[in-house]
Design brief:
Rna Polymerase Sigma Factor, Chain: A; elongated; 2 domains; mainly alpha; 187 residues; Arc Repressor Mutant, subunit A; 8 helices
């Protein structure tokens, strides 16, 4: 079945088509959820919530542009809306300069370990970091998405980088090979 036909059937609330769409995109969208979640269980909850929104809003998809891009955008917005409701973006005192530059060196660090460190960041730092570094949003766009100022976005990013750098420096064992319990893949 073609993707367009599958989407049309989902628009008609066809449960089998929805199940097929879930099977087709759940892995990719889980990866998106994992970037924005504190752990795997939360990512699974966010994936479920995202698919609920996707199936409720699929009528708004107009077959222009990438459907996968639309799915990712809905997923990110769903997760961010959840954090917004939880007050994850309440204003913090802004003790850092807007343009603080903090370099994070990730040489010889496994991606699994780095993802774990990112997931452990406080929500406001993790989400600003992911939107800027991983998804390429500007600080202006992040400010609009999260309902914060551009300065707060820059500060959150700097604090996220600083926290990651400090954590990497604290645990030098991870800079030399694979840590116990974390599998790395050779490419």
């Amino acid at each position: 079945m073609s993707l367009d036909k599958l989407i049309k059937q989902c628009k008609q609330q066809d449960r089998k088509a929805q199940e097929e769409l879930y099977k087709l995109f759940s892995r990719k969208l889980f990866s998106v959820c994992l970037k924005y979640s504190r752990n795997q269980v939360e990512a699974e909850d966010n994936l479920h919530d995202s698919f609920m929104v996707i199936f409720n809003k699929i009528d708004t998809y107009n077959f222009k542009g990438s459907f996968e891009g639309w799915l990712k955008r809905v997923t990110v917005n769903t997760v961010l809306q959840k954090y917004r409701k939880q007050g994850a973006f309440d204003a913090l005192p802004n003790n850092l300069e807007d343009e603080v530059s903090v370099e994070v060196t990730t040489d010889n660090v496994s991606l699994d370990y780095l993802l774990k460190l990112i997931q452990e960041l406080p929500d406001r730092y993790r989400l600003s970091f992911n939107l800027y570094v991983l998804d390429g949003y500007s600080h202006k766009e992040i400010a609009e998405i999260l309902g914060i100022s551009e300065g707060t976005s820059k500060s959150n990013l700097a604090r996220a980088k600083m926290a990651l750098r400090n954590r990497l420096e604290e645990d030098k064992n991870y800079l030399r090979g694979s840590p116990r319990g974390i599998q790395t893949k050779k490419i």
